[in-house]
Amino acid sequence: MNSEHLKALIAFSSQKGFIWGPEPEIYGGVSGFYTYGPLGKLLKNRIESIIRERFVRAEFYEVECPIVMPRPVWEASGHLAGFSDPVLSCAKCSANVRADEFIGEKFPELKESLRAENILKVVEEKGLKCPVCGSDFKKEVLQHNLMMKTTIGISGESFLRPETATTTYLPFPRYADFFRNKLPFGVFQIGKAFRNEISPRQYLLRLREFTQAEGQLFIHPDEKKSYYRFDVIADAILPMVHAGAQVGDRFNIEEMSLKDALTKGYMKSKAYAWTLHFAYELFLAMGIPKERIRLRQHRSDEKAFYADDAWDVEVNLNCFGWTEMCGVHDRTDYDLSQHEKFSKKKLEVSLEMGKVKPHVLEIAFGTDRPVFAILDLFYSKKAEDEGKSMLCLPLDICPVQVGVFPLFRKEGMPEQANMIADDLRDEFIVKYDETQSIGKRYLRAAEEGVPFCITVDYETMKDKTVTLRERDSELQVRVKAEELRSLLHRLFNNTVVFSELKGAVKQDSA
Ligand SMILES: [Zn+2]
Known about the structure:
By secondary structure, the protein is an alpha+beta fold. It has three domains: 3-70 and 147-377, BirA Bifunctional Protein, domain 2 (2-Layer Sandwich), CATH 3.30.930; 84-145, no CATH class; 400-506, Rossmann fold (3-Layer(aba) Sandwich), CATH 3.40.50. 31% of the residues lie in helices and 27% in strands. β8 (149-152) and β9 (156-160) form a beta hairpin. The site of zinc ion has 8 residues, from loops.
């Protein structure tokens, strides 16, 4: 872990209005709860709109299900019995630690192979003591359930959902009607989920309240092997680390086509390969650079019991190294069978050849992690002597798209700049700034990730031309104010490159 980078990133994100917390800050803060400040929320909205657009384009329909659900739902889903972390409690001061993380931090080599049943053995062998007071732990490992409990009405025991997926499955008979008993069909949900983590310490990577985006493809079990959408992506090359290639902590990435991966048996079905490819493309679309992404298959010892196959999209973060961002799971008919059993309602579709219970292929991730990944990967502190930070965000996800500045607060420049800003606001998110020197304003805009800035100066008042400046190259060009809109359009659509604009030159901003 690069804690220097993380510290700088947290300070930067909070100072610039991206992420605030842990909240409630004025009451001292509780870990695992954060506020998205104005720029953070704009960034998260951009990421979520890319997710929405991708799912919709792939014919997934969005639904919004309740966050609170009564006890039987979580008995059926398995969360009540099995969704827990092992806890060690101090015999003297009663401090609690999450056993697997506590041991993993002290002995990273044990982390992968640690099983619940040998936690006490490890504690004894290594002589582990309470981190608070140094006393012995109690001779038992408690299971701490991660669901947050609440009450419906006076006594209805219920829980805040720990994932959106379960709530997505519940209206299944309605889907069967809506989709006219045809398979496959896709449904997705973007919404809040809650996990009562014991002591989350990884900033946006481990939250007690977070946003999930989960897509579910309901498919006929027989169609998985012949899925019609596979042919289009058969030759796509993906960076894969299959289960058999994970020896010790050395994971070799194989660049391989999905067709070859299927032939080699890395994946079992064409439909699964399609969902994995969808997830990969989605992370590219969110602006994560290709060389930072790999797809890693779960080994049999880490796979959830219901999953027939599971791969993670992992991103190589500056702060934390390779980090899980998204899980793609073949959940078979596990969920529908469970809810059928507990609700006593048939969860099937009626096809011509009879009734069938579909399988579910799931693409599951949170939207907070990609936001963190974007900040982690694109934040840089360039010239250390000046303390100059930059946020070189890809154009598609910039929270603020254009900055408009009057060179001075006089001779009609603010009025002219405001007119330009207002005009551009029809199509872009625009920031108007007249405080401090023009050089400082350019720096501030670069820190906020604003890709293009416009300056109104003396010449503007004479000939209606302005300076347009690009963040990353620091190139400037003189253009007519009336042409700004169409030029910005072309820049954002990548149909024109700034450095190829006529008259683009590098100028000292100070
Ligand atoms: Zn203690």
